Amino acid sequence: MSETRCLQGIWSSPWIFIFAASGAAVGLGNIWKFPYVLGENGGGAFLVVYCLCLLLVGLPVLVAEVALGRTVRSNPIDTVNDLSERHICHSAWVVVPWVAGITGFLILGFYSVIAGWAMAYLERALSGEFMGITSSVAISMFDDLKADPTEMLLWHSIFMVLVVLVVGQSVTRGLSTVVKILIPTLLLALVLMAAYSFSIGDVPSTLDFMFAWSWQDVTFDVVLSAIGMALFSLSIGMGAMFSYGAYISKHMSIARACSIVVAFDLIVAVLAGLVIFPLVFESQIDVQSGPSLTFVSLPIIFGNLIGGQFFAGIFFLLLVVAALTSAISMLELFVAWLHERFYVPRLNAAFVLGLAIWFIGVAVLLSFNHWDTEIVFGMNFFALLDNVTTYILLPIGAILLSVLMAWFMPRDMLLNEMITKNTDHFHWWYNVLKYISIPALVVITLAGWLGA
Ligand code: PFF
């Protein structure tokens, strides 16, 4: 691999990687998406299957992605070219980073609009609009936002400018300092909010919904949703974690670091559920209400709390920062590649790519109002983008990347380069990836497409 293409610098401690990767993983997926997907999929059974998916698919694929990054220490696109020059794989595998990058692009197109909702709610929180709010007012507040393309456009544009500036100024890696504060604060805020939500909400129904399950609730749709959610939530299958893996030291246990990232990600998601569902049941909000669930229930929680205006402000600020640290990881891949390979200034690359994503976001936000028409299979543009990325592109990226690691990279090379201390971890990871994660991803994804 040519020296010029190698990335410079190594993270000084495993915790810096853990925080950076957690910053990419923890975001709107945990607080906005997980609760409503849990709601749509019946609760407890989904949670059990989701945990299994994290363990048997999410963690092994995350380790594979990070480990490939560390093994080659380059950007994903050049990596495949280098591997093909070394006759490890065919040059056609270059399709993998392209699929990954395009997935990130499309996800960011709608992610930015949802992050815009969080910003709009930050503004409403600070101006005291949640005070004494009832569930019907909370529902119409959210409906009003979705019906107003101008306001959504404003927040979406501000969010994209922030993403472009952060990625363009090359401070992406510096953000692990922000995440070091963000994750513990977010955890603390969620624990306090869950305690408060338990004190005013319907606890028995929540515990029953989230933790009771039976085998007949485990349907194929539940498994499919859980796999999609795991890939989305851990940000895998699209090169973001690869880019972070490229900076970690040879002596760090990837398995351990990735397990901590998965644990953080799961804890934040479950806590978000524990915050939201007591209120959802107490206020008789429909658990199946989909993407609006979080944005309708949170204002009610804050609206009835002493000092709620202040706490709501802090919480939505944390949510926006969490969304930002995830969003930048989606843009980083192509910007890094354009910069390293073609010497395009980072800011220019980020601006051009960000502009293209901004246009996708405009179509998304219009699909909540003026353009809320069916495009295919009863889905509008937002639903189409969400489903195509979650159930088609992310699984394809994850499968191809895992196959490359498990079936093409020489096993000895992986063993020597990747695992420094514990060979048991290596064998566990390698066999699970090869014989469980990949077949599970292939079978479930294919069955999902055929049944769609
Ligand atoms: N994992 C992020 C979240 O849960 O909000 C979303 C995400 C970020 C998906 C980065 C994909 C990605 F590359």
TrEMBL record:
rRNA processing is among the record's keywords: no
Q: Which CDD domains match?
A: SLC6sbd_Tyt1-Like
Per UniProt, subcellular location reads as: Membrane
Going by the UniProt record, its keywords in alphabetical order are: Membrane, Symport, Transmembrane, Transmembrane helix, Transport
For this protein, the parts annotated as crossing the membrane are: 12-32, 44-68, 88-114, 153-171, 178-198, 218-242, 254-281, 310-335, 347-368, 388-408, 428-450
InterPro entries named among the record's database cross-references? Na/ntran_symport, SNS_sf, YocR/YhdH-like
Recorded hits in Pfam families, A to Z, give: SNF
* Topology with respect to the bilayer: Multi-pass membrane protein
Task: Write out the similarity annotation.
Answer: Belongs to the sodium:neurotransmitter symporter (SNF) (TC 2.A.22) family.
The protein depicted here goes by the name Transporter
